[in-house]
Records
---
Amino acid sequence: MATTHNLGFPRIGAKRELKFALEAYWKGESTRDDLVRVGADLRARHWRDQAGLDLAPVGDFAFYDQVLDMSFTLGNLPERVRDFHGDALDNYFRVARGRSAKGTEDHAACCGGVAAGEMTKWFDTNYHYIVPEFDAGTEFKLDATRLLAQLAEAKDQGVKAKPVIIGPVTYLALGKAKDHSDKLALLPRLLPVYADLLAALADQGVKWVQIDEPILVTELDSTWRDAFVQAYEALNTGAVKLLLATYFGQLKENLDLAATLRVQGIHLDAINARDEVDALVRALPADRVVSLGVVNGRNIWKTDLEAVLAWLEPLAQTLGDRLWIAPSCSLLHVPVDLGGERKLDGEVKSWLAFAVQKLEEIRVLATALSQGRAAVAADLAANAQAIAARRASPRVNNPAVKAAVARIDAALGRRKSPFGERTGKQAALLNLPLFPTTTIGSFPQTKEIRLARSQFKAGAIDAAAYTQAMRNEIARSVREQEALGLDVLVHGEAERNDMVEYFGEQLDGYVFSQGGWVQSYGSRCVKPPILFGDISRPKAMTVDWISYAASLTKKPMKGMLTGPVTILNWSFVRDDQPRATSCLQLALAIRGEVLDLEKAGIRVIQIDEAALREGLPLRRSQWREYLDWAVESFRITANGVADETQIHTHMCYSEFNDIIASIADMDADVITIETSRSAMELLDAFDDFNYPNQIGPGVYDIHSPNIPTEDHIVTLMKKAAARIPADRLWVNPDCGLKTRQWNEVIPALTSMVSAAKTLRATVS
Ligand code: GLN
Ligand code: ZN
């Protein structure tokens, strides 16, 4: 009979209780006890939600981040917080976000805040973890307090507990050696601490421990592969049984390695690596547990239960008790409970499953395996009906969109003339000075904007009043930009609360949940829009706003759009067609908007691709394929315009070295990128690769309230001019200004505009 389990449950709470409890605690508005109580209540509730499983995860709850929890469990605190007063939780928040709660930081002059740990993306998800820090001298020391306390709680509540920890190899691989020393040299110091941890868990009667090693789905060199062998030899102490969990991808060349590790079971992501199941079963010794992730832990769709049963039933015959079933990965990456959705379109809702519903699917599958399908006939029938309805729905399938995608040919993504010819025509039309100045799109989201938006949502003001309020803000932005003397203006994006949601709401094929929150980092959550059907654009989405802005000035007005790859990467996407196809549909829709803007007389159009880089697959060998369709989607979106129309794109990062050729292939006339934080060092990519078009390397960090000086900007731009010909450089901030105040934006842009004037006079 198949054992059912779960790899991790979303900890933020169906109503984001953890977020609000954390933020109140940090602001000094609630006590430590209040926070601790909310944590315990959430754990108890989530274990009740998982009561139908044979094994529930323990230790997946974290106040901020599970990787940071692991660092504390291993006694790996950055040196800079070690001597601080306060207890472990204060220090934990200091590493997480630079400071603990208000009260704990105020009373001592010593801790005005410390540098927060670096944050980076957890594999290819939108979850961010706190990067473990190492150096050649790092020592580890077990602190199992947190895990043992959660285990004791679980036992009290009668939970069939399976502690979850991050494995030693993945832990090292995800961290950063600050002194560039060899991280693997720490493995011999780390393993005894893991062995102690397993022994401590065994003392509490734990039978199985889930040890996560997702790094196994990436390309590993031989030293890291050897580290796996060494680690699991050392941890094979017999104290507990280890379920080695892999997820997010295929094992590929690591499959044989994984199969021979000295663990008692392996979890495989049978959504992404279904085709490896047979090989894994064959490669594993006959006494090992095979845990299959058969329900997708990364999307929000119902599982086709009959299809899963059709391939799982014979496997269950072969494997018997060795078969475990679970979601493909931790459910951290999906919202908690569909039950709370009151306004969601009923038809689409019937196709969805959030965390609670996904566990119910596991239960139905397990029952069907152990007692036969008849035992869950009603569940299976309801599921089959939902799957069939979705497949056949005219709202999902739009033949006109499918036909348009089928008609795409290479010419659609090609500008009429090469950059060398376009650039002269654009210069003649736009008549810009050397070192033209511009901004990335958004201006401050003021109190007035937020008020008008919430009043409109609540029905307190009508559409006309709302439009007027937004127009007032747009007019203000234009006035300010003219006063500053910027060269290419923007409308300021007052009407957008989010650069993806704004477009999703106006496109056919999208729905929005009310409570579909997913943790992004710490207390921060996102609510990804749900792309459910073929995408089309019923009508123009931005033309009125931008035309209005353009009517207020003689300067060029830049139209502002979000690109198809970014819209795709920040949405929950369909599982019934390749991502590439959804992306091409988005590309055609946004292309229509680009052409409408051009028709309305807008001759500079920016298409943001902030999230292009984060869509890169985990394995480098798959980058090419992704970049091909991502770049092609951008080109289709952008490149239907006349030579005179100038296309800009913006990217929120500057690690370009490995994808610079693809960025160049996009053939945007101008790209604006982030570089200010590294004093233009990130322009390294442009040393080896002669980027052919124009570039605006961000000259100041919009995330900081600090006002850049003119001198600083001039110095940075001179560094840029040493690498890129001056006549191809733009001067602009790092990113949009919506999170800043006007009283910060005006002095910062004043410096920027004077810097451009100085540059014009001194660099040629
Ligand atoms: N145009 C957007 C803005 O200025 C770009 C935001 C982004 O790159 N994240 O807000
Ligand atoms: Zn940006």
Note: The pocket of glutamine (ligand 1) is lined by residues 440-442, 493, 499, 560, 608, 610, 650, 652, 735-736, 738 (CB under 6 Å).
---
Amino acid sequence: MKGRRAIGIFDSGVGGLTVLKEVEKILPYEELIYFGDNLRAPYGSKTTEEILEFTLNIGDFLIEKNVKMLIIACNTATAVALEVLKDRLNIPVIGVIAPGSISAINLTKKNKIGVFSTPVTAKMNAYKNEIEKINKDIEVYQIGCKPLCKMIESEWEDTKENQDIIKYYVKKLPMEIDVVVFGCTHYPIIKEYFYRELKGKKFVNPAKETALEAEKLLKKLKLLNKRESKGLVSFYTSGNVNKFKKIAEKILGKPIKEIKQALN
Ligand code: DGL
């Protein structure tokens, strides 16, 4: 019976859908509840106090929905609130930074990793600290990219000006790095624009590793959903429903029947 409850997934906006997509692939029978805090995005330029307050509210909202596990599909919220949410909630809580770090460590041959993230994630040294916990010899270069989340939330366009913004951040990375982490769940949405500038580098999208971590934990806790038909996915946003629908359908590549508004 316990396994039938949904998994809660949240982000500041549509970025966490890149994680939801992997969770749907790896755990197709699970019911999922996605919450995008589009009204308050971007988190990356807010204070840690504000981010903590938003995430605690979302945690409470998803607990009311009776979720059996919480996936923080946002690096910034993971950096700020993972430990607090783990302490506060009575269910397993996972973030994206530890899974992303492990993938990057496994991939690097030169022990030099670059991470693109929001300014908050970079300033908190979230990836550097996580990677150094496992291997102190690895150098981590963290680049905070202030405008990107907002631009992706309002539909990225393939223009020269936008490509120049990517170039500007790419130039900040030393070229000796061999692995690049998308340390913001919004960035895989525009991955090809990073690929253009960083040919020959290996990329990490922490989403897949996070979904595998969720699977491992649910198995261990005997909380997997035993059903054998596709699980329901419910969507909530604190922002504009039509705007969310348009961009979310593009990211997921399929129509979404219903999106509800909450916490607005
Ligand atoms: N998608 C988020 C992350 O992974 C947050 C982006 C933002 O709201 O600034 O960090």
Note: The chain has two domains: 2-95+208-261, 97-206.
